[in-house]
Amino acid sequence: MINVLFFAQVRELLGESAMQVEATAEINSAETLRAVLASKDEKWGKVLASDKLLVAVNQTISGWDTQVQDGDEVAFFPPVTGG
Known about the structure:
This protein has 83 residues and is an alpha+beta fold.
């Protein structure tokens, strides 16, 4: 299983803080995981649009092409801004 975490506004909008997704041959990168989750419904698609998110794999900020596998932790969160 891949452990998926949602933080900040992503968590609030989805109403989910964490879930597990079965590791499959189709889900081999952070992007394919994001796409599978975004296809759940329209709300998930809007919240998980890749241009509005950052991703971390195993607690390291990563690119969308980062490989994922069984046992990994993948976190989605909005870009952080400050002033």
